[in-house]
Design the sequence.
């Protein structure tokens, strides 16, 4: 689903509602982020609705896995102190939407830091110039990129 196909009721629904998930990610992740690479931590209300998207990049270029981890270690505990209990992850990058080994590493970092902060990781998506796909936990890597 593209962002312009989202139903009017999307803000009242959980971000991970399968009927709107990819459209919401398409709305949040910018074309610039898809062209250069970024990772989004999408903070959610307790009922799973969108609260605040936060983009982690490296000055307009793809952040390293370590940069993402460092950012999350600062962001998520502070967000949890303010009542955030869940987050969605979006990986923005050029190329296709097939998961890579790097995507797996990024997801593992999110899972680890979320666990330490007491925040649930509700879902993961990959956003590329050609579209958005949900990245279920059991997907396998396409390459070591």
Sequence:
């Amino acid at each position: 689903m593209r962002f312009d196909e989202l139903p009017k009721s999307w803000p009242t629904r959980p971000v991970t509602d399968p009927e709107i998930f990819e459209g919401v990610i398409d709305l949040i992740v910018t074309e610039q982020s898809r062209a250069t690479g970024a990772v989004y931590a999408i903070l959610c209300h307790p009922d799973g609705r969108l609260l605040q998207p936060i983009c982690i990049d490296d000055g307009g270029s793809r952040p390293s896995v370590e940069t993402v981890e460092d950012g999350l270690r600062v962001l998520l505990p502070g967000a949890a102190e303010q009542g955030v209990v869940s987050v969605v992850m979006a990986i923005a990058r050029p190329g296709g939407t097939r998961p890579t080994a790097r995507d797996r590493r990024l997801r593992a970092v999110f899972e680890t830091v979320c666990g330490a902060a007491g925040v649930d990781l509700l879902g993961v998506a990959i956003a590329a110039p050609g579209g958005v796909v949900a990245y279920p936990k059991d997907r396998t890597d396409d390459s070591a990129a």
Q: What stands out?
A: Strands lie at 38-44, 50-56, 86-92, 120-128, 131-134.
